[in-house]
């Protein structure tokens, strides 16, 4: 595991954008795994700025998002498809048919999960997966207790996750109860993983990731066994500097 500590969230986001841009330069038809939430917003802003200023092209890039809520129409402002359009897709030259998210309104959700998993691997897998982390250590929407062997599946969201995500909705009751998420095994198959961790609320999760054991009680600990993991944490996520020494 490689770890970078940045002064603040802005620098954390910039570092992740730099890594993504380097990989695009090396492989202009790469497959990018994308995440949502508050953490990567600044990274998407940086990619959009770079596209506008330096013209980095996404014409040959394919993206696969980690997850999507169940039951939100795709044009709902809180769907992850809307998030991705607002923060990235509408501002770069990626053809819409090369952007992939699970369909949370599919009639047969189980079949949708199988199809999404097959689509990812049929495409040759993810080259670089961008990740955030939940306060309880969830990655994607894989809550504590999820099998490390899991593939794309339907999950019931933990109350704490619905509470944490309520800030994007009018109230907690509006947060969907279920989501489709890549499984932990799906995520681990990415050739490279970049995990961003920002802010005081994530201190415990970072501490546990760096110093705890590998256990299904803490989904992010699965990442410790990945051969190409980069963690980018801002200073606010570090309670005590010695944790990264
Ligand atoms: N499904 C997403 C995750 O992909 C994200 O990493 C995490 C942290 O979110 P945030 O970055 O807003 O703290 O929770 C959400 O529920």
From TrEMBL:
UniProt keywords, alphabetically: Carbohydrate metabolism, Hydrolase
Record-linked Pfam families? Glucosamine_iso (PF01182)
Reactions that this protein is recorded to catalyse: alpha-D-glucosamine 6-phosphate + H2O = beta-D-fructose 6-phosphate + NH4(+)
Q: Which SUPFAM superfamilies match?
A: NagB/RpiA/CoA transferase-like
A single GO cellular-component term from the record reads: cytoplasm
The record's listing under InterPro entries reads: Glc/Gal-6P_isomerase, Glucosamine6P_isomerase, Glucosamine6P_isomerase_CS, NagB/RpiA_transferase-like
Enumerate the spans annotated as Glucosamine/galactosamine-6-phosphate isomerase domain.
10-226
Pathway listed for it is:
Amino-sugar metabolism; N-acetylneuraminate degradation; D-fructose 6-phosphate from N-acetylneuraminate: step 5/5
Q: What is its EC number?
A: 3.5.99.6
So which domain of life are we looking at? Bacteria
Span-the-membrane segments of this chain are: none
The cross-references to Gene3D superfamilies, in alphabetical order and at most eight, read: 3.40.50.1360
One annotated GO biological process: glucosamine catabolic process
Q: Which GO terms describe its molecular function?
A: glucosamine-6-phosphate deaminase activity; identical protein binding
Catalytic residue list: 67 (proton acceptor), 136 (for ring-opening step), 138 (proton acceptor), 143 (for ring-opening step)
NCBIfam families attached to this UniProt entry: nagB
What task does this protein carry out? Answer: Catalyzes the reversible isomerization-deamination of glucosamine 6-phosphate (GlcN6P) to form fructose 6-phosphate (Fru6P) and ammonium ion.
Q: Which family does it belong to?
A: Belongs to the glucosamine/galactosamine-6-phosphate isomerase family. NagB subfamily.
- For this entry, the protein name equals Glucosamine-6-phosphate deaminase
Its gene name is: nagB
């Amino acid at each position: 595991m490689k770890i970078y500590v940045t002064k603040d969230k802005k620098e954390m986001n910039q570092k992740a954008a730099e890594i993504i841009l380097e990989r695009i330069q090396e492989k202009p038809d790469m497959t990018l795994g994308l995440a949502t939430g508050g953490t990567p917003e600044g990274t998407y802003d940086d990619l959009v700025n770079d596209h506008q200023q330096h013209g980095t092209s996404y014409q040959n890039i394919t993206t696969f998002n980690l997850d999507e809520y169940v039951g939100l129409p795709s044009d709902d402002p809180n769907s992850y498809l809307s998030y991705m359009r607002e923060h990235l897709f509408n501002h770069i030259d990626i053809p819409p048919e090369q952007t992939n998210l699970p369909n949370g309104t599919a009639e047969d959700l189980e079949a949708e999960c199988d199809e999404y998993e097959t689509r990812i691997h049929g495409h040759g897998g993810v080259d670089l997966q961008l990740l955030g982390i939940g306060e309880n250590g969830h990655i994607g929407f894989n809550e504590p207790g999820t099998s490390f062997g899991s593939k794309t599946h339907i999950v019931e969201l933990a109350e704490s996750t619905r509470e944490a995500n309520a800030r994007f909705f009018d109230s907690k009751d509006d947060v969907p109860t279920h989501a489709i998420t890549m499984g932990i095994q799906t995520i681990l198959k990415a050739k490279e993983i970049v995990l961003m961790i920002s802010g005081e609320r994530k201190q415990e999760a970072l501490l546990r990731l760096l110093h705890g054991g590998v256990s299904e009680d803490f989904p992010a600990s699965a990442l410790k066994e990945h051969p190409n993991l980069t963690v980018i944490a801002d200073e606010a996520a570090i309670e005590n500097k010695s944790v990264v020494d």
